[in-house]
Structures are given as C-alpha cells and as structure tokens.
Amino acid sequence: MVEEVDASASLFGLGDVPNGVVAMVWPLTSICLALLARQLLIIHPVFPCTSLLLILGIGLGLASGFTGLSALGDSTRMWAAIAPELVLYLFLPPLVFSDGLFTNTHYFRRESGLCILLAGPGVVVGCFLVAGFAIAALPDAAPDWKLGAALGAIVSATDPAAVLALLKEVGAEPKLSTVVSGESLLNDGSSVVLFKVAVFLAAGGSPTAEDVLAFLALEVLASPLVGLAFALVVVFWLSRTRDPVVVVALTLAASWACYVCADWLCRGSGVLAVVTSSLVLADLGKLSVTGEGSVALRCVWELAEFLANSMVFSLAGTIIGFELATATGEQVSLADLGLSVALYAYLLASRALVVTLCLGAGRLCGLKQLGWREGVVLWWGGLRGAVGLSLALSLDEYGEQGVLPEGSSKKVLFYVIVTTVLTLTLNGPTTGRLMHAVGLVDRTERQELNRRVMAHIKSVAAASVCAVCEEEGADQAVLESRVLGIFPAGGGAEVVAPAAPWLRTWSKWAEWGVEEEGDNCDDGVEEDALRRYYGSVRSEYLRLRDRRELSSQAALILAGSCDRGMDAVGGAEGTQGVHLLDWAWLCRTELVRRRAPNLSLGKISAWLNRASSLTIGFGWESGSLLRLEVAAAYAAAHRTVRGHFTSALLEEGSGSCSPCSDRVLGVLQALQGESEEKEGEARLYLRSAPELSRRTMANRRAILRVITELEEEVETMEAESAISGGDARDLLGRLSGLRLATCKRTQAIVLDTKKAL
Questions:
Q1: Is 56 exposed, middle or buried (0-12, 13-18, 19+ CB in 10 A)?
Q2: What integer pLDDT is reported at residue 471 of this predicted model?
Q3: Residue 287: CB atoms within 10 Å
C-alpha cells in the first residue's frame, strides 16, 4: 500500500498531509465562501453573487501566490493546474442539464425557430465579429484568426439567469423569457462546437474535407441521438419508480454519463447530447416525477447548478489572482484592464447587430416575431456566465500544457473574466430599469388585480389570527399588529419588508426613477386576468396528478389545453373580451370529441397503447376512459379554481376606490360566468356518455383516490412508529400493485362494473 504524502504541505502545523486531503482543501474553502456570499447577499443584495465569488477567488489566488497559505496554497496551485478536459467534464453537464430540465417545452417549441437563428447563425456571425476585433485590438491574445475565433466562441455563450429571474419577477410575457432561455441553452452547444474547431486549428490541425464532414456528422447528428437514447432510458426508469432518491440519482448520473459517452466514446458534442437529453426529460420525464420526487429533483438540481457556478467563478478568479501574484507583468498587466473594457463595449455593439439580423431573418422566414422592445431587452440581457468561463479555463490549461501560446491563453482568460463581471454587474441589475424605460412592463394593468390578491391574502391572515388566538388563548391585538402589519394599509400589491430607510441595494437601484403607476386602466386587464386564471387551472391539474387522482397522459393533455389557451390570449386566435378557449381546443382534438365515446379499443390502438406504456410509462389510449377522465378533471379543476380565484377576488373588491375597480370587477364577473359555462359543457359531455362508461370511469377514479388516502395514512403511521417498517413497506407495495393494475388493466374494471349494473 502506497501512501501519497506531500512533505511540504502541512495543515495548521499538524504534520504531513496526504495529497488527497490537499486536493479537497480548495474546493471546500470555495464552497464555504460561496455559501457565506449567498447568505449575505440574500440579506443585503448589494452585488451579484457570482461577481463577488470572482473577486474572492482573485483574493484567494493573490494570497496563495504571495504567502503560500500552507495546505490551502498547495491546493490552490493544484487546482490552478487542472486538466482542461476535466474542467469541461466537471462543470458543463450540471450547468447545461439544469437549464434544459426546467425549460417550459411548450413555449420552447413555439419559439424554437428564433432560438435556433440566434444560437446558430447568430453565434457564428458574433464569433467572427469578435475575432476580427481581437486580431485588430488584442494582438497579444489573438495573434491570428484561429485564437480570435476561440475568444469569439467563448464570449458567445450567454448565461442570462439574473435576467430570467427579473423577467419572472415583473411578470413579463413567457415568449420573451423563452427566447432568452432557449437561446442560452442552444448557444451553449454551438459555442462549444466552434470552440473545439478553433482550438484544433490553433493547435496546428489541418483537416481534410472528409474530416470536416465526419466532424459535423458526429457533432450535429450523432450527439443528439446519444442524448435521445439516454433520455428514453431515463424516462422508462422514472415511470416505474416513486423513490425520490432513485429519481435524483438517476438524473444526476444521466447528465454526466450522457456527456462522457457523447464526447469521449462517440467523439461528438457532449453539450448537444446533454441539451437534447434534458429537453426530452423536461417534456416527458417530469410527468412521471410527482410528490416528493418533484421537490427533491428541483432542490438537488438547483444545488448542483449553484455549486458548479460557484466553483467555476471561484476557480477563474483564483487562477487570475495567482497569475497576478507570480507573473512578471509579461502575461497579464493592468493595461489589459482597459482593453477588456473596450472588448465589453464591442461585445454590446456586435450583440446589437446580431440580434437585429436574426430578428430581421425571422421576419423574412415568417417566424413569430418579437417587437423592438423585446429586442432591446434581448440585446442588453445577453449576460456571460459559467459556461464561457469553463471554456476559458480549459483554454488556459491548453496554454499551460504548451498546446497553445501560454501568454495568449492567460490574456484570453483575463478578458473573459472582466467582460463577464461587467455584464453581471452592469447589464443584469439595470435590465429592470431598461424594461420600464422602453415601456415593456406596464404595471398599471396589474395594479388592481394585485391589490385584490393581496387583500385576499390579508383576509386569510386575519381569519387565521382569530382562530389561533381563540385556540391558544393569545392576545389578538399583538398578533394583528405583528402579522397584519406587514401588509400595506391600502391592501396594495407589494409587501413591505422591514428595512432601514436609507438602505439602497444594488438590485433596487434598477427600479430608481420609475414613475408610480397612473390611474389609467388599459386593455391589458382581460389578458392579465386570463393568464392568471389559466395558470391556476394548470396548477390544479398538476396537483391532481401529484395526488395520483389524474393520469399522466390526461394531465399532459389538460396542461396542453391551458398552454394553448394562453397562446391565444392577445394573439391572432384570441378575441376581444373574456373567452376561455381551452375547452374548444380539447373538443377539436381526437382525445375529447363532441359525442361521448364507447369503451371499444381497436387492435391497433391497443398495440400503440402497450408500446407507449413500455417506453414512457403511460399509454396513449383512444377509448372512452381517457376522454371521460379529461372531461371530469376539466370540470373539477375549473370548479376548484373558480372558488379560490374569481370568487375570492370578487369578495375583496368591495369598497375599492381605484379607477380600475369597476373595470376589473366586470372582467372577473365575466371570467366567472365563462368558467361556469365551460364547466357546464364538460358535465354535459359526461352525462351524454353511456352509463357503463360513466360508471367505469367513476369507479376507476374512486379506487385511485382511496389508494392515495391509504398510502398517506400508512406513511403517517410509519412516521409515528404506530406500524412496523416491514408491515408498512408490505402494505405500500400492495397498494402500489393495486394502483398499477387499476391504471393498466381497465378491462377488469369494466367487467366488474357490468356485474354491478
């Protein structure tokens, strides 16, 4: 047995430290700094977290270069010399996979044409524009067009996480958010492909025509097929497990395995494979992930993305700090800071040109267009982030190995770091102000609805205070002053958190100078109310699915009807006034017909159903049970949402003096009437079905509901130690088998229902 020991390394004077321990010192230190920075910035968001990590990493690198820092210094130097392939293998899979896994695939399909234009031809044009600037203005970093193209490919990868969070916060239309996130997801793959080509040529490669065709075939065709194969395997497995540990571990393993298989075994693009795999799982795989698995999946992948981002930014800062502390001034100097600012300004100009060209090309191709206001936000919101830094780090390691000029690679890394910091600290926080300046976000149309929502929450809080005081014997005046005091006196739309009046945070600076909402109520009230209502109904469908009271197939169909309804709001399909179009879309499909169907299932449909059940876990039935299940869930969801959405907001509107109150009141009343009408149509459809079909569907839904309640009761008793773990597992296994038989073997329920009739 060989013990690896670095005699020069000692941790706090405790003697020799094994190399394995030394290798863990820097990552643990970086994670601790990231957690500290995140916690501090949650309390006082004065600076973007990733930029702060870059600065802390530079400080750590400077300290390691000047003082050594014992084992921490040795660990820092060890990670500063990390292999370039390892940088990409460690950090790219979680960064790319997490973005794709939580993409709204319905909107992504709608806007995929524009996303492909921006991430394909747009990235190529932007790459060569930057290459030309680098050759002319940055000759030390890009002595030829090959290294200039490598720099252009690196800065082409966008990471607009901060902008997406802001778009969600202000309630921007999903179309803009989808284009921003879709471009970022796809251009990760295209920029990595361009980067690999540029590095290969810069290292002295001279490909033939056959080599180019083979490379494109592997990168563009084979890699997505690898990702699709991995995704289908994962979907097949997810459909047959409810264990959240298996769900999380399976997706984590799939992300890295897919990347390694495509990049190393197939010699293709690991990023394109991961993008394809994550999008397929977002579209089909998450339908099989419910309850605890869904919550665990989101939490773990947010953690993985946070750790990968933190490590990349901290590592980049550490390498630059270490080089500044140990270099003689020949590689990176303060004069490069001014060139980095010039590169940032040029990136803004080239980004404006690329966005303009892509929007114009999309208009010529007949794609759904963004307006000039959305184009301005798309231009300014093209932030740079962890993917570009990962590529720059790998380029730097190629320089360390002598594959590329070391001085050029160091300067490229420095330029990328500075431009990334500038986009995060200047573009990100000011995007909100820009959106208000161009009139993209009109909060006037939402003011009255927001006031009613907040008033409803306040009334719920008041009722809760009364009930708790009566039960606990507490002082109602104290609870009202503490709990109800967080709500504005007028029931406004914003909850004011206690804070020092002089505190002006960086994130709030983006909203300085924005005028208060006026008293005019524009035509956007109907659209806003419809979007909120569709969102509530969609959430109710998913809640029924999570409780296993609705099949995954029916949930997919119903969620799609809400998406189509939201598409029609304010669009060409929409009409003036308040109209719910989701039921009309369902009636136009083959899944729900005007005439209630019988229970017949042909041989071809049965074969397709079995094939679908085998691959993705649920069947595409064409018989009546699915159609009746959809109609019943539609009626139930609209009844539930109407009770806690329109009715509650109508009650909170009494006594309002807002100029928009009468307009909003009319919209809510019209929406309530429309919902009641559509629910009536769904129930009429159910009543028109043959009695056997109706009773079979009711029996099936009742069985699944009882199974869910029993599972919850058994899990509660097991947690309270009222039943042994073995007995609980045995009973839960039997219930799971009964659920599977109920979902898959409908013919047995039909026969039992016939006997009962």
A1: buried
A2: 74
A3: 23
Supply the pLDDT for residue 168: 65
Residues found in the chain: 757
Average model confidence (pLDDT) across the chain: 77
The continuous run of DSSP H or E covering 16 comes out as strand 16-18
- C-alpha 212/C-alpha 78 separation (Å) is 36
- Side-chain-facing half-sphere of 95: CA atoms under 13 Å: 32
- Output the CA angle 302-152-160, nearest 5 degrees: 30
Q: What is the DSSP letter of 17?
A: E
Q: How far is residue 451's CA from residue 418's CA, in Å, rounded to a whole number?
A: 43
**Exposed / middle / buried, residue 46 (Cβ in 10 Å: 0-12, 13-18, 19+):** middle
- Measured CA to CA, the distance from residue 184 to residue 606 in angstroms comes to 41
Whole-prediction pTM value?
Answer: 0.75
3-state class of 593 per DSSP? coil
Q: Answer left, alpha or beta for residue 473, where phi above 0 means left and psi between -120 and 50 means alpha.
A: left
Q: What is the DSSP string of 85-130?
A: HHHHHHHHHHHHHHHHHT--HHHHHHTHHHHHHHHTHHHHHHHHHH
Q: What is the pLDDT of residues 223-250, one digit of tens each?
A: 999 999 999 999 888 877 778 889 999 9
Whether 252 and 73 have beta carbons less than 8 Å apart is answered as: no
Contact present, 484 and 461 (Cβ < 8 Å) = yes
Q: Is the dihedral of CA 622, 626, 632, 633 positive or negative?
A: negative
Q: Distance (Å, rounded) from C-alpha 405 to C-alpha 301? A: 37
CB 629 within 8 A of CB 697: yes
Of 450 and 680, the structure prediction assigns the larger pLDDT to 680
Tokens 């999570």, residue?
546
User: Residue 574: its pLDDT value, please?
Assistant: 45
DSSP conformation letters of 414-483 = HHHHHHHHHIIIIIHHHHHHHHHHTT---THHHHHHHHHHHHHHHHHHHHHHHHHHHHHT--HHHHHHHH
Q: What is the CA radius of gyration of the chain?
A: 29
Each residue of 151-176: pLDDT tens digit? 999 998 887 666 676 676 666 677 78
The whole-number pLDDT of residue 618 equals 47
Quick: pLDDT tens for 508-551: 333 333 333 444 445 567 777 788 888 888 888 888 887 777 87
The number of C-alpha atoms within 13 Å of 572 and in the hemisphere containing its C-beta is 2
Query: Which residues, 6 or more positions from 218, have their beta carbon under 8 angstroms from its beta carbon?
Result: 266, 267, 268, 269
What tokens were used for 66?
């000047």
With 0-12 / 13-18 / 19 or more C-beta atoms within 10 angstroms meaning exposed / middle / buried, residue 88 is: buried
Residue 595 pLDDT > 80, yes or no?
A: no
Rounded Cα gap, residues 32 and 283, in angstroms: 35
Three-state secondary structure of 603-651: HHHHHHHHHHHHHHCCCCCCCHHHHHHHHHHHHHHHHHHHHHCHHHHHH
Give me the phi and psi of 10, to 5 degrees please.
-140, 140
